[in-house]
Amino acid sequence: MTTQHAKRLDQINTHFFAAFGEKITLRCAQGHDVIRLDMGSPDMPPAQQILNYFQQRINQPDGYGYQSHRGTGALRRAWAVMYLREFNVSLNPNDEIMPLLGSKEGIFHLMQALIEPGDVVLIPDPSYPTYASGVLFAGGQPFYMPLQVENNFLPNLEDIPNDIARRAKVMWLNYPNNPTASVASLEFFAGAVEFCREFDVLLCHDAAYSQVTFDNYQAPSILQIPGAKNVAVEFNSLSKSHNMAGMRVGACVGNPEVLAILHKLKSNVDSSHFLPIMASVAFALTGDQTWVKQRNEIYQERRDLVVNSLVSLGLSFTPPLGSLYVWTAIPSGWTSMKFTDLLLERANISVTPGVVFGQHGEGYIRISLTSPVERIVEAMQRLTKLWTEEHSLHRF
Fold first, then answer.
1. Predicted local distance difference test score (pLDDT) of residue 11
2. Quick count: other Cβ atoms within 10 Å of Cβ 272?
3. Would you say 111 and 170 are in contact if contact means Cβ atoms under 8 Å apart?
4. Where along the chain do the CATH 3.40.640.10 domains lie?
C-alpha cells in the first residue's frame, strides 16, 4: 500500500531535536561520552513532596477514568492561586484558565483553532519553533520580527509595517526568552499590549520560563498590564518551573473568548489528563515553593560556570537572568551548524545551533544548563581545550 501524506505536512519539518537526538544516540553507541547541553529538559526531579503526593494519588482507584476536558476545578483554582501569588494577577477559574497537556500542544492547537489560510502572524526570530510550525500547518503567513542584540533581543514593534500590522491576527512573545535567554520589562509588555489593542491583534505570551530566574530577578506576567486580558492570553507550564516536563502539564490563561475557542478544538482532540497528575499539579502549584528557589540556585551555579568559561574565551554574550540557557555568539567565519558539528565531533559536547530557531539565530549557539555541575565543568574544560587548539591554527 502507498500512503501519501497530506500536503499541509510539507509546510513543517521534523523537529530538530528528533533528528539531532538520533545523531547523538549513534555517537554514544560508538563509545563516545557526549555531554548534552542541547535540550532544555530539566535533569532534576520534582520536589520529593510532589513525588510522595503523586504516589499516594496513583494508589487511589477512582483516578483512572476520563476527566473533564477543562481539567478539574481544583486544578484551575490552583493555577489561579499561583498567578495571584507570583504575579498579583487575578484569574477566574471558571473561564480564564484552560489546562493543557503541556504548553506545546496548546500553542500548536491554538493556531489551528484561530488561523485561516493567508492570515498573518507576528513571530519573533529567533524563537521556539512551534510558534511557526503551528502557523504554517494552519496555512498562515508568518511575519518574522528580528530579535537582535542591539535591542536586547526584544522585537522593535515600530519596525512592523502598518499594512502588516493591520493584517496581523496574532503576535507571539516569549520572556524569559528561548533561545536568547533575554528578559522583558513591564514597560515593554505595556507597549506590546497597546500595539495589539490598536491593531486588533491577539497577543500570545509564552511564559514557560517565568519561574526559572537568577540573581533575585522576578519575571513579570503580561497579564499584569491593565487591560491585557482584553487582547492577550499567556501560556505557562510546569515542565521548567517544577521539573515536571514528562508529565506534560501546562495552562493557557487570560482572555475567556480565546480560551473557549481553544476548548472547542481540544474537546475533539484529547480527553484531558490523568487525575493523579492533575491532583499533583494542583499540589505543586499551591504547596511550599521554597524548593523552587533552591533549584534556581543550582541552575545559577551552572550558569556562572558557563559564563565564566565563555568570558575567558572572549565570546560575546549577555549573562542570563532567566531561562535554562546561555545564548552566545560564535567565532566569525563559522555557521552555527558547522560550529555545533565541530563541538560534537571534536569535543563530544552537544549544543543547539542558533539557526534552528530562525535565520536571525545564525551566528549563535544555545547552551543548556540542564546537566549536573560536574558535567558542565567537564564540558567547559573540553571547550577550552578545543578552543586553544583551533586558535593556534588560526581557525578562530
1. 84
2. 18
3. yes
4. 49-286
Any idea which residue has 499516594 for its cell?
56
Helices (H), 168-266: 186-199, 238-241, 256-266
pTM for the model: 0.95
CATH for 49-286, options being 3.40.640.10, 3.30.365.10, 1.10.240.10, 2.60.120.680: 3.40.640.10
How many other C-beta atoms lie within 10 A of the C-beta of residue 32?
12
Mean pLDDT of the chain: 94
At 350, is the secondary structure helix, strand, or coil? strand
Q: Is the peptide bond before 353 cis (omega within 30 degrees of 0)?
A: no
pLDDT on residue 164: 98
The single-letter code of the amino acid at 60 is Q
In the chain, residues under CATH classification 3.90.1150.10 are 7-46+290-390
The three cell numbers locating residue 384: 577550552
Identify whether 176 is preceded by a cis peptide bond (ω within 30 of 0): yes
As a whole number of angstroms, the distance between CA 349 and CA 343 comes to 5
Question: Which residue do the cell numbers 568570558 mark?
Answer: 311
Closest-CA residue to 261 (of 111, 77, 78): 111
d(CA 317, CA 38): 17
Neighbours of 367 (CB within 10 A): 30
Q: Which helix (H) or strand (E) holds 124?
A: strand 120-125
Q: What is the pLDDT of residues 80-126, one digit of tens each?
A: 999 999 999 999 999 999 999 999 999 999 999 999 999 999 999 99
CATH number for the region 7-46+290-390 comes to: 3.90.1150.10
Report the distance separating Cα 368 and Cα 351, nearest Å.
7
